[in-house]
Amino acid sequence: MGTLTVQDILAKLGPRPGIALVWDIFLYLVFLLAVIVMFMQSDKQLVPTLMAGAVAAMAVIAKLDVLAPREFGSLIINAGMFVLPMIIAGITQAKKSQVPSVICSVFAGLYFFLFWFVAQR
Fold first, then answer.
1. What single-letter DSSP state applies at residue 119?
2. CA dist 69 to 49, 57, 83, 117, Å?
3. Per residue in 96-111, pLDDT tens?
């Protein structure tokens, strides 16, 4: 097994050609919106902040292809990216973060269902 370098990780985080570019754009949007939602939470809202961080981490895990598309863990990661932002929108006290959280959930839902239909079936 070879060593993993920073260049390998950066190459995997970059956009890919073909249909993979569509998946990359969805994952970039989910990551960006999750980080925005995370920073919009107040200091006293630890649970929504951690959930938004988990969504951003799930987007990075999906982008790095840690799990193969047909593995059960990949399905769980994609479903988590879809469900957690909806939960954040429901439990947050920062009302301004509800709209970006719902938008994040919509993009993650589109990614989840399209990826499931095209790559995981």
1. T
2. 28, 17, 19, 11
3. 999 999 999 999 999 9
CA dihedral sign, ordered 115, 108, 15, 59: negative
Cβ-contact 45, 93 below 8 angstroms = yes
Q: Enter the pTM of the model.
A: 0.91
> Which are the contacts of 9, defined by CB distance < 8 A and separation ≥ 6?
64
pLDDT tens-digit profile of 60-115?
A: 999 998 888 889 999 999 999 999 999 999 999 989 999 999 999 999 999 999 99
Task: Determine which helix (DSSP H) or strand (DSSP E) holds 46, and give its type and residue range.
Answer: helix 46-63
Cβ distance 119 to 103 under 8 Å? no
Maximum distance among all Cα pairs of the chain, rounded to whole angstroms: 48
